Queue: 3 jobs
Job 1
Amino acid sequence: MKATENIEGLLSLSSAALCTRDARQGFQKALRYNDQLRAFLEAPYHLDVRLPDLINPLIAHLRKDWETQHVSKPWLYSILYSLIDVRGLRPLTRFFPNEVMDLERCVFLLKNWYGQELVVTSLDEIHTNDRPLTLETPKFNTVYDEQGVSADAKHRVTFVLFVALSVLVGVPFDIASLDSTGNLVDTVAALVLSSFDDGTNTHTISTEVLARLATRPDLRETFLPKLLMHLNGILSEYCTRSRKPSDLGIESKTGEFDITNRGKISACLMCISYCTRFSDREHLLHLSTILEDPMEMLGVLLKDPNRDIRRLCIVLSTRLSTVYLPQRNFLWRQRVLQQRSRLELKDEYLRELDGFSIPDEFDYYVTSLLTGLQDDDTGIRLASAKGFALVVGRLPFLFANELVEELLHLFSPAESPETWHGAGMALGEIIRCGLLMPERISQVSKVVAEALRFERQKSGVIVRDTACFIVWSLSRAYHTCQELMLEASTIAANILVVALFDREVNIRRAAAAAFQELAGRVREPYVPSAIKAAALVDYYALGSKKYSYQTISLQIAELDQQYLDAIVTALHTRYVIHLDGSIRTLAAQTLASTLLVDQDVDTRSERAKVVFSLLLSLLKNTDPEEDWMSYCGYLLAISNCVREFCNDGPMLGTLVVSLLRDLWDSQESLFKQGKRFKNNADGSFNIICATSTLISNIAQCPLEYAVQIVSSDEIYRAYYEYLLSVLEYSILVTIDSMSIAMFDTENTNDVILALRALAALYSSMIKEQPSGGYKLSNTFFKDCINSAIVNSTLATLAALGLTPEQFLVEEAYYIQKRCYDELKRTMAPSEYVTRLYVLSTIEATFLSLKHLSEDDVELTSFILSACLTDFGSDQRGDVGSLVRLKTFRVLRLLLSTNPVTLPFFSHLYKNALVMFLGSRIDIMRIDAVISLYEDLKGPIDWSDVDLTLVDSYMCSYEREKETLAQMRDEAHKQRREDFTEIDKHMYDLHQRELRDDDPLTEDSTINILALTPHLSYTALNILAVVFLPSEGYGSIAANALVYVFGVMSETVSTYMMRLILELTGKRSISVLVKHVLMGPNSDKFLASIKQAIAKGVEPLLTALNSAIGTWAPGDQYKFSILDSALSLLDFLYAYDVHESDDEIIFERLSVILKLCRVLTSPKLLKYIVGIFASGGAIGVRNGFNKARDRCIRALILMMGHRVTRVRQIAAEALLELLLIQSWLPEDSTEDAVLKLTACDWHMLDQDELEYSRALLCQCLSIDPPPAKKSSK
């Protein structure tokens, strides 16, 4: 329906363009037509239904222009050009005129339009006297403005006329009988050759016109040889000049062969190619020459930097080489196509050479195709591949076999990826066309295996993709061939490895398609478990790299022993040492799991032993500085094998223990190699992570094996000291690579996880006391942590929290004292990482304690209080927010997990929660409100505040959690019902949502923050309604509301304004009941809110006084508080919210006036002016004379401020006060207004300011402010 409407719009535009005579309107309609026509680019065939209606009126006008020999409406040609551009030339040429009389008319109109007088005697002598034709087009408005519209319109007219001429030159009559002037042919040639230099795409159609003309039966004997000679002359001169590098890029005297004008050379090659295409083969064979000196000419042109020239050389070489080859199929090809069996060299194949001869030029054309296979451009390689396959199919057996042999030689490790890709595409085309001798399938199988393993950074993908194409072609063309059946299992195993483990999803899917073709055509028993394996490598399932590695690969390995061997070999030889870190990690995990797939225990153990021993040997012989990727891969593979083998059973567990004991001799060097390299940050970090993962997996083995591996305190110390030496580096790298918005307050990395695993291993040894266990003293851990290898406060404090439980309990005071001393030493913003790990250490310590001393409480209270008030910031932003959020979560974890902390830290946690409800950061408010809601059912006592309203506010949150859980359960149920009759290994394969982040997996997280974004506003409501009126938390809540009022977010700022107005009774209740499900108790709920509102204003104003009165210069956090307080006070005064005591207002205004002497921020000064203006109005309305006078004097004082903008707004504020809330007699008010408006206050100098303010004060009957001391 939409396509029909668009076509109707096109018809109406073309009709309007036909009717209009105004050029401006015509070109506007042409531009609109082109824009609407672009909607059909993806499906241009939709135009075919109304194509006659679209083009016939335009063609009719074209014929009228031929009759009048004048282009009357050039915009119609633009419309016709757009149609050709979108729909293509072939479907439209049948509508163009083909009458004999139109030929000369079209040529003459084209000659006139081209703007040249052609004096043509013969093709060898064409002289053009340029007389440029200027097409005047109107200037469009801004909607339809296009640069160069005149030149573009002229080019489009020329192109359309050449399209019409391409049809007319094919008239079936002798040209001489139609030529009234005697030089029609030479005129067409001159027009076409002139189009070679115009810099547009006109030559793409004009060359076809010239080639069709030259290859006519009445002209090919006379005109075609001259044309080829002329074109070869141009090419020869270009090649001669191109051999001199100094000439390239430097404009020649004629300018004809400048490097920027290679379009002419492309047009010459295209014309020769068209002539070859349109000519009869027999006639071409009788020509003396088609391309002069092809060896030298093609050798130069194929090295040209212009892509079009090289591509046309390949096309021309293909066409010229096929000219010399017979059209029939030789006997060998017929037998390959019919039998697909091995061909033996027989006499009949030798007899094919009888009468077969080719000229010497043929070798040059084939060499050009081989050169094109190695080109840097993909399109040229593909064209060369198709041409090469075409040539092979036209040759006798011996010559074709020789070319295939030459092609196979290109698959060399020394060749570039582009050469591999081009040769692979050519081989694939040869196989697809059935031109490969069956006895070469074994060679092709080896080539495919090498291509599938081809891996070079940023360029190996095209080679592996080509290998998949070769396998696909083999499967389609040779599935009945015995040679392929013998190689099918090997090819299947190799292609399956790529389908499972390749980094690129498109290659995985291409390999899967090739395997499915092979399995479906060759079938079992030649392809093991063909049907099941083909079903497993599903298109959508392979979209998830993690699922492909960890699930599908194990299912494939279970199907057949050959698949298992191929997968294991590929993993430990290729993918664990891959360039991509994620591939190395997944491959290491998959290798360990795959080694345990075999059901035969002896076979599984033997394979595991061989692979594990090989990995250990490779690790020992790899230098991490030269090949850190392989080193990391071997470490990851060994660590995952350790974990899987030890959990599998005693046989493999004992194997791991014995082999790792043999490794101990080199472990000291291993740990030294794992340290940082100066010039390789990536290598250093990855090696540290891999080594830490190995230690972690060893420590997490079952205790009986872990104790045997870490069999002495010497080994334990080596592990422990290594992790301590790289701890700080790992922490800083992890945090530097993470944005504040995505920061994880758990602060974990591989080194920290390994230290925790070692601590847990030692704690288990102490508790269970297995044979071989040993005991370490607290001094041992202190010495390790305080040794020179740590050499960092950050690492020391972090390491204290990663010690065994025994150390944490016995040395609790020592740990807390170290943390306390460090926090007292510095609270600089740059040390926020240290504070984060201090909190982690405090968390680990207090989770282990069973009782607390007074010293414990005192030290920890200081630490937690200091971190809760960390508002530091640096170049990364508000880094203190990370510390505050971490502190809050630590407090909550301690209170909910360790009951002994409840009596000591509950008040600190509750105060922090109230403060967080008014945070400027959304995530902190949401975290606080969810914690409060969950605390209603937890151990924390909130009896000192009424929390009955919290349930009403959080009901929508609870409801959406339930809804999400129901949705997930229903989706799981539906998924199970859809696959009840399918085997387990088929489950989930055809679901698009199977990705790494599948929303239905059990380990996925419910994103409550995304589902309930209103929780950040609910937190503000609870803060205002629940905590602001309470006695114990009112001041904290008020301070939090003051602080959050200065938030930069426009939406939150607007919400806060509405909330404050509702709190002060200046606005009906709306946002305070937002997202609350009103039920039977709605009246009671509203009554509770109104009661809270009545009590909330006083704490808020008190908090404002405190924020303004306690500000001190130099404190950024205090400055933010002052900013928020002044902004809120300005807002409240503007809405007439204030105390009812003149003295209180006067004192507050006096404090604010003192701030003017030290504040320099224009923003804050603007707030202050607004406060004085609103305060003066309050004083006038309520009879607060002291407050009124204070405001008037303050405004007059501000009118003398050094900031001109402040003076101006102070004068405007005083004027508004006089006009609206005047307290003076009418005459005095009028006089004061005149004095006030007579001056441009922002432009006065100091003396003028003093004089003007004195006059104004005289009118107001007040003393003028003291004069400023002269700078002299």
Job 2
Amino acid sequence: MNYSENQKAVIFHAPDENLLVAASAGSGKTTVLIEHVYQQLLAGQDIDRFLISTFTDAAASEMKSRLEKRIRQGIGETSAKADKKHLQAQLLSLNSAAIGTLDAFSLKIIERYYAAIGLDPRYRILADQTEKDLLIQEVIDNTFNSSYKDSRFLELLANFSSASRDQDLKKLVIRLNSMAEARAEADEWLDSLGRHYRLGNSLTAGDFWQRLLAPQLSDKVVEAYYQIVSAKEKIEKLQDYGSYEPYLTDVAAMMQGLINSFKSNDWQQIRNYYDQHPWPKSARKKGNTPGEAEYFKQFVDKQIKAARDSYRSIATDFLLLNEKQWLLISQNADKIVTELVELTKLFRKHFAAKKRDLSLLDFSDGEQFAYQILKVPSIREEVQSSYHEVLVDEYQDINDLQESILTSVANSHNMFMVGDLKQSIYGFRQADPKKFTEKYRAYGRHQGGRLIELADNYRSEKNVTQFSNSVFDQLMDQKLGGIDYKGDVQLKAANKDYPADLKKVAEISIVIDDGQQTEADFGKTDAELELIAAKIQDLVGHEQLFDRDSKSMRPVQFKDITILGRSHAWENELQAVFAKHNIPVNVAAGNFLQEFEISVILSFLKIIDNPHQDIPLAAVLRSPIYGLDENKLAEIRTVDLKHDYFTAVKTYAETGADADLKDLLVNFLQQLNRYREIAADNRIVDLIWQIYDDTNWPEYVSAMVGGTQRLANLHALYEYAQQLSDNRFVGLFSFIRYVEQLMNATEDFSQAPADMGEQAVSVMTIHAAKGLEFPIVFLLNLDKKIDARDTQGVMVADFDEGVGIDLVDPVSRVKIPTLQKMVVAEKIKEKNWAEEMRLLYVALTRAEQRLYLIGASGSQTDLALSWETPVSKDPAVLAVQDRLRATSYQQWIGMALAKTGRIDLTDLVKQADQSDLVFSIKLVDYSQIIDMAAQETENDTAAVTASDIKSDPEINLSRAEKILDYRYPFQTESNLAAYHNVSELKRVFEDPDALLLPEMDDQPAAEITELPKPDFAQSSQGTHISSTDKGTATHLILEKIDWHKELTTDYLTNLIHQTISDSDLAQAIELDKLEWLIHSELGRQIQAHVDSLRREETFAMLLPAEKLYQGISSGDQVLVHGIIDGYFIDGDDVILFDYKTDRLTKNYMADLSARYAGQLNIYATALASMYPGKKVADRVIAGLEGEKLIHL
């Protein structure tokens, strides 16, 4: 093999100096590492003198296999007998060599030196994380129970939870313990968590202000400042908005003054400046130049409002309290954090004692004990002398404790570390890329070791590497990502085999939904999957790619294609769509215990263990195994309304009126008793197999969409039960509890592999794809929001900056986010965004020849706005504020390409002249994909007529046609619900003036589901606010307005912040829209009749079905319920009004009328029945977005 100069430098490196190899994606790092070890063996070293640490057991096995292959090859290549003999001896020693995970190495240290720390050698490895989790739960329950008599514990509990609901606090303790397990000095780290709360007598004198709070405040205002500068630049092009230039100039100067005030290091001076400089009154446009108003609304006004909201949030989040108040809050919070740390230490003490009592040792114990052993000088010297070189693969993913072990084994100059900071993606497993960063910077300056870059990429075609470079050149730097993506760090296409004329493909496809989405059961993900399916069908058999093995062109096959996603959430939908298009697929999916086929069996096991559980019992009877519908289940319940459902089942089996149902339940109870006998003998494996055999459940699910995978999952459950039969989880209850713990695991409990054959599209997460490569890569859900949950909740925790908490006043129960929490949350966000950036890098660099990125957006305007970078003035890299403002990979990619001029934001599909990179952007209309999917379905389900059937005397075609053509006479009614809320009805009104729905022959039944907690009620810190969240929050404010009061801007601002706890969402509510409504004709009428005003009025009424649906004459009635936004009484008249926050459209008033008139008709009908002596004189739609009143 022809090695590059840098590869040769790595291969022939002598272990007399520490070496860090920064190996980029596709650079052949494993090959180089293997060759390095081989060359040392060839020079006379022994394999058992090397410690080679790998990230996983699989990587260790591959390392041994490849090293064995290289040694055998070397034996064949060398003619010297001494060398041949030495290499043969290394083969014999290879299996016992120290090549494996650091966990495995730690256990070897313990096995040999356990006496040094007084450890009992009789222990069992607690290798199963779920078993450990159950033990943790048992210990923490006992720890809490013993702490309730402590007043300090009760104070801690009151801050985070309550005596009746202490689960939240337990989760915090478990989380801190998990983080502490990855630290070399766990107790010291725990003690440091509250250091930022100890501020002394000044808020602005120490490290907390200088390094954390002041820079974050400044960054926030700088971002707002540049938003104003960008808006001012756009204003200069508009004739009607000239008056905005001095207004925006004043605003920019005001913000610059606030930025300068931070340099004073005087909290009161900063507050005074802000109080003296409120946001100035907005300017007004003059003129009606065509198109300017719409441009201003879409591109300028949104930036001004975002800057204003950001400026105002400085006050609401930070400057609301004076320095003395913040110092007191910090002092009180410090006491809470201290007690939380002490509670965590107490739990850790109890947990350690419990494990010793049970003679258990988990992996964190193994590493911690090994580190304690290696701290003994004589042992450390002995271990160090045993190894010629310490090699670490995937060095970017080690943690603090593992680093301490490795440096204890090394002799300060013989460490050989290989990794890629750009691929550090395991922060959720406590990996700390800071270790790599520190050495990368130090060794780059020749301090403590040597740095060698391996940037040559032998995997990808040049256009793919260039696309990745174009993105990450703007995204990644030391501030956000840990490394400057410049020069030698950039990928360099080094594979010379690819033909020069190979088609270059880097395609970004965005599904555009302008808000007119009408298909409730066809969402954004469905549209993206349909688009991918169509592209795959266009590729396979029609396009050519380069076969790297045969070094020739061939047609694209299914096996060449891999689909990557951030999570497993979309995989069931993918299997359904691909099955429809006859695309074979292999899914490396997530937690199989949460799949439908498994959940049915688990419900069965639960009622075998205890049949007096209503929900699992109903689930089993309702499942396809017994097939009872809701009417049958209700009929069973009628025979016994007092006791649990199982009692009702037994009663019906004895006295039920329906003979068939009675027989089914008798058989069910007999089966259940037989299963309970098997379970009593702890024969869980036999029990599961007996259920499979009796119910034919495996055969049933194999016929469902994704049947092969489902069948594999059922077999995996059986095999897993068999594996567990050897440990203490032998009883059915213990097995169920164990499986439930697995189902709730945060890490994937992967689905069983379902082999669809080599000719299938592969589907996996980005994490699962690390280290792999594929000819064609699709990255799905490009627009998926980056997970910000680590920055939310009652506590945030960071390895470097400690914890941030909300402080709850013990008397008023008012919750105050501390300054420390806001600062730590921002630091966590920076780290999380950096890791997501690296995850995107991993995804893009998996592709060898073609890259397809699939995302979605609202309108093209929304997409263009999301790709703007107003703060980014440095041509070298995007500003940190712009990168942190992004909420998806889609935004990052668009920002990077737009800033360098590769995308024209005024014409997104227009491609700039760029000889170094070929890529395209395709905007696909949502409705176009719906039509495409509908056409595909129509083609797939084309009818087969009698003339298509060959003549067969055994077939009675006339009777067959009669059966097949039979139409149920009440088909229309069967597709309709007997219970509706008005919101379900309003989407399908045909005539705005009639209380009728269109014909429902081909319409699906309205699906009634339990509504989840609205997102606006949850925290959305750091995430984009959707129009739905914003509209819901706006409705809540309108509901809370006290029309008796003077409705000033200050009143509305205070109401918003008191009502909406999420600061981002509160800032998104548009005050000017609320003020318009208050001062409108409707607002004046409401104020004049405030005593008769009613809001959020609920109602329920029965309406004849024929008044709601056309073509219905059965005489049945439909129960309709709803909530009326508001109405008031004016003499004999009732005035009905309804708020709408729908986005602005070309025919705004007509669209609102068409969409909601039928809904208001139902409200009017309800009011007429409530007030029989009065008339509903007016029905008013208040369109807030367009500031229009529509009288129906």
Job 3
Amino acid sequence: MGMSMANRFDAGGVLGDLTTAREEILCGLFAQVLGVDRVRVEDSFFDLGGQSLRAIRLISRIRAVLGVEVAVRTLFSNPTVAQLARALDGAGNSRPRLVATARPERLPLSFAQRRLWFLDRLSGPSPVYNMPFAWRLEGSPDVGALESALRDVVRRHESLRTIFPVVAGQPYQQIVDAAEAAPELTVVETDQATLPSLLEQAARHVFDLATQLPVRAWLFRLAPQEHVLLLMTHHTACDGWSMGILVRDLAEAYRARTGGHAPGWPELPVQYADYTLWERGLLGDSGEASSMLSGQVNYWTSALRDLPDELALPYDRPRPVEPTDHGGMVVVTLDAQLHSDLATLARQHRTTLFMVLHAGLAALLSRCGAGTDIPIGTPVAGRSDEAVHDLVGFFVNTLVLRADLSGDPTFADLLARIRETDLAAYSNQDVPFERLVEILNPARSVSRHSLFQVMLVSDNAATGRWELPGLRIEPTPLGHETTKFDLSLFVRPLYDADGSPAGIRGTFEYAQDLFDESTVEALAERLTRLLRQVVDDPSRPVGEYEVLADDERQRILHDWNDTGRAVPGLTLPQLFQQQAARTPDATAVVCGGNQLSYAELDHRANQLARHLVALGAGPEKSVAIALPHGELLVIALLAVLKAGAAHLPVDPDQPAGEVEFMFTDARPTVVITDAHATAAGLPAAGGPPVMILDAAGTRDALTSVPGTALCDDERTAALRPTHPAYVVYTSDVAGAPAGVTVTHRGVINYCAWASATYRVDGESAAPVRPGLSSGLAISSILLPLLAGGTVVLIPEGVGGEPLTAFLDGAAGPVAPVRLKPSDLRAMAGHEDRAADRKTVLVIGGETLPTSVARDWSHGGAEIHREYGAEECTIGSVAHRVGDESGAVVPMGRPIWNTRVFVLDSLLRPVPPGVFGELYVAGAGLARGYLGQAGRTAQQFVACPFGVGERMYRTGDLVRWRPDGTLEFAGQLDELTSPSPDSGAPVRDGVASPQEERLCELFAQVLGVDQVGVGDSFFDLGGHSLLAAVLLAKITERFGVELSLKQFFSNPSVGAVNEYLGDVSTGERVGPAATGE
């Protein structure tokens, strides 16, 4: 046998064979932490079942036994006993040990307690930080013994008898004397039917942190031999690890009390109060370069720089200004084979199962629209000193793990990034999350969690099963009625008796303010689907894994795009000619007192068309029209189309520079105008030839030309549906103009759909307001003319009043009336004008509030929402307003012969509910941008879902609703470059006397020399606890209580002054002044 450790010294008193001694100690520590009988020097910690939590426990044991500090990264890089023993040569001395110490008169809160106390004050008392656990007891428990046992546990652990009084806005820990600490045990007689509601009611009990012990219990008696025990603590006194200690001690105390004596526990070496003081001493001041806190803060400041304020998750509802704590739960189970495969993947990449699941969740969120910068919170035990391993208290800390998915990495590469990120975070885990928020000072909002909104929790807490004499105990699940974050995933690996993987139980907890259950169920299914693909081939880019189910892919690519309809394969002149032949005497155009029949309009347009052909106009050429709103404008438009040329609209009021650019770019054959428009500023020289339509010479020339229909032999070339019908100019986000070239085919497809959808026929009158420089305006004339209706030109220079007058005077159906939501609001009060006749209102432009649409719908109008871009020929998506439930009317579905796709940055379909960029394909696509092949290729891209087909990238962010309608979010360029919110405006000028006093209070609390009226409390270094101190001083000075929630909404002197009102006169302005 070898010498004992005590005898391994050479003659000089130096420990001989030092590495072997370390190996022996480390083998014992490995075995203790891993719960195995024996460990060899070549055994790997992670092959034996080690994971992140056990790694941290091992490091704590090494610190206590060997007195050296080991980084988590060191263990991951040296996972065997032999490797780690050699690595300890470079290890530094361990941190100071936690021991009992003298306490100040007023004991401060720990950083973790401080944050929960603040949240309690900010949002008001709430059950959201309750920790309830329930068990079904078969047998007859000794209630007296149970009550005594609970009291024993509370006396043993000071954290369970600590309350938080407040003096001058500052809370402190007050430990209730052990003899006086009597936790409540409430016995309730009930039955199985009412038990669930009673459990829910008990779990939502609200603790008063200032006066009540943070622990209590209920015993529900269902029958003499059947009970349910609910034990609940507040999170300020307990954490997941602590619950295992609490029930263990409770069981031991119960056994002792049923035996007629008190539990014979040894004295705990330290209490939570000692930890609080040790924590502050250990971390020091972040301003001290030598302090542990300083080094770790430097890491976090760098690691979390430019962190996104909020993840773009697939929410079902907008985030409320004041969220509730209502939560839901969805369970997902990964089978034993997948569990085994994931564990194998972790070993192959020298990571842990948690890291693999972290990478999987980050990849899922990224594929579901969250971007490539994914911050996820995760709890760590926070018990870095051995002295607290058997102590109940709130030690858990929260780390922010930032996943980088930029560049579409392979899953293996992502896992390597995650490994580095997680190891670095574990090595810097001592900075309390609450302190980190104060230092980083992120944009604050009462509606969301700071720094992250998604939590990933490795749920290894062993609080479910315990034993009491004479009782059979089974855990009873409680519904997740509350939630702290937008989305949390709890994962619990399960193992068979031999230690082999038996599956992973996952629980998604979600905020019901934001998500429907079905959305979270879909997320859970997508996570399972993605992980199965990952284990099959981790070398694939994350973007290649399929997150859609087969039926989903079929639905969004095909079923919701099943829009094929037959439309005439003709040109616009042919269709108009047919209509004019059918109804020659019907009224085609009305403008004031002037009217044109279809025959008259056709005749005059044919005459002008022949004149234009004689001037060189024809297919693949353009003719500019710069005419005021009137019947001549309609004649000219039809004439250009009949000549085969493309219509180039020019607004007579357009700046001369813009018109000159259009003429240079489009090179029109001729400009049709009148004397008034010419005088208004068309280019005087160097431009195309000008035809003054109302000049005597032009009128004489036209009268000598036949008014019969033109044929292709008369045109410069045969006219086909693929030829340009018009060119309209639009600008990109940088303001660069380009001419969008739209074909006859696209216009005819839209008009065929619109005439059927809006029921435009020979009885319809369609009002057209001034302005003909867009495709929408052009279609407002062509749509009724191709369907036999009447175009009614509304006079220039007027708003909504003549339109309502037109509605009053219309004898028959009115369809369509094209408006913007702002027009509807301007016409409020006239909704009943649509009651006496069919009135179809088509709303485009900005989003349409449901309330506005509902008012007009109730008034008798038929309301349609239409979305489109010039590049897609007027309208491509539409929706008829019905019984809408959302705040805004959805965009709708694709029109005839149109397909729409919601894609991510790599042109992959995103799942329903996930925002992506809208792409449009089909008959309505424009040719492109006139003379700009590069820009055309950039915006009109190859469609991956159709052979030889193009699609247009709109730049709009949308998502599919579950019913197959599209929902609009905004434009990508606006959403990716948001302007910072400057908050409420602050009045300029000299501060009032009351504002001066407030500035003094701000400066006093913040420890600064000067504060301005518009300065933000947090920008000047304020944090949550100081905010409470400031409000206490304001109450003391002014006699008015302000809520923390109101203060957080705008924490400036000027805003606080507004909330206070004029205290000298008793006037109150804001709701905070009444304590609301």
